Amino acid sequence: MSWRFGRFCGLARLSLVALALSMLSGCLVDDPPPLIAPGQTPPRLDTTRALPGQDQIIVKNSGELIEFKVPVTSEDAGDPLYANLLFDYGGDGTVPDFLYSVPMPASTLDDKKREFKLPWTVRKGVAPGCHRFTLRVTHLSNINAEHPEQAIDKADLAQAFWFANINVSPEDANSLVDCPQASVGAE
């Protein structure tokens, strides 16, 4: 009888080992899926943190500095950003007055410290009155070579606008009379 019991215990151990081995395959973890590089996203300007604020009238005279600062985020996929600051740009096909152009190295959406800084000193000869500044940001590969103020793909373009009274008398400083209206036909 002891030989039967020994045989039974051996068979029981063998069954437990087989059961344990069959459970091991359920615990194995598959390889993670392959990493897919993020795709490029259009630039986004954080105009709520722009300086000067877009809801204020800039008042400056010839020789004074205006420094535009605008935080930007985008997934660039290796393609640098490029910003153009334009003066009284209407998007109507006329050649704009480029005030400042600056590239920014490619980065990712995780980069929360990116910002364009575009200083411009009001030059002599600017007609007194209200003027509009336009900031246009796109990826470098999206710039039209013949017309750098234009983007090839309008979906990959961010814009910001400011109004300034330049070389005006103090009593006209806070008036937006005769300001350029929103552009017509701008891309």
Secondary-structure element sequence?
HEEEEEEEE
Count of discrete alpha- or pi-helical segments spanning 4 or more residues: 1
Assembly status: single chain
Total tally of structural domains: 2
CATH superfamily heading of the largest domain? Immunoglobulins
Indicate the proportion of strand residues: 25-35%
Tell me the total number of β-strands: 8
In CATH terms, what is the fold-level topology of the largest domain? Immunoglobulin-like
Care to describe what's here?
The protein has 187 residues and is α+β, with helices and mostly antiparallel strands. It has two domains: 1-30; 44-172, Immunoglobulins (Immunoglobulin-like, Sandwich). 14% of the residues lie in helices and 30% in strands. It is built from one helix and eight strands. It has one helix spanning 2-27, and strands at residues 44-45, 58-60, 65-73, 81-87, 97-104, 115-121, 129-139, 157-166. Strands 2-8-7-4-5 form a five-stranded mixed sheet, with no helix packed on it. A three-stranded antiparallel sheet has the order 1-3-6, with no helix packed on it. The protein is elongated.
Features of the shown structure:
alpha+beta; 187 residues; three-stranded antiparallel sheet; Immunoglobulin-like; 8 strands
